[in-house]
Specification:
By secondary structure, the protein is mostly helical. It has three helices and no strands.
């Protein structure tokens, strides 16, 4: 088994400078993300969760009114809508971060 030789102090400094310069170059390539961009992403995430949730509630209320049962379809479809909405929001955020 080979033992690693100790790192020189300048090697750590070199890695830190390299990491910072890579971050700066990436930020320049991405351009300026303004407040409007942030609000737009916030809106996309909000709507991508809200719409499936509201659709699930509406469908659940309709099913509960037409076909009464001991189980609440409204609650079940509310939960399914929230889960689907969160997966949808995750997809949009991942897609946006991949584009940058």
């Amino acid at each position: 088994m080979k033992s690693k030789k100790p790192r020189e102090p300048w090697e750590d400094f070199e890695e830190q400078v390299s990491a910072k310069s890579k971050r700066k170059l990436k930020a320049r390539r991405q351009g300026n993300h303004t407040v409007w961009f942030g609000l737009g992403m916030f809106g996309i995430v909000g709507w991508s969760i809200a719409v499936p949730t509201l659709l699930g509630i509406a469908l659940g209320v309709w099913i509960d009114s037409k076909f009464p049962s001991k189980y609440s379809w409204t609650l079940m479809l509310l939960f399914i809508g929230v889960v689907f909405g969160c997966i949808n929001a995750w997809y949009w955020i991942e897609r946006e971060s991949r584009d940058d």
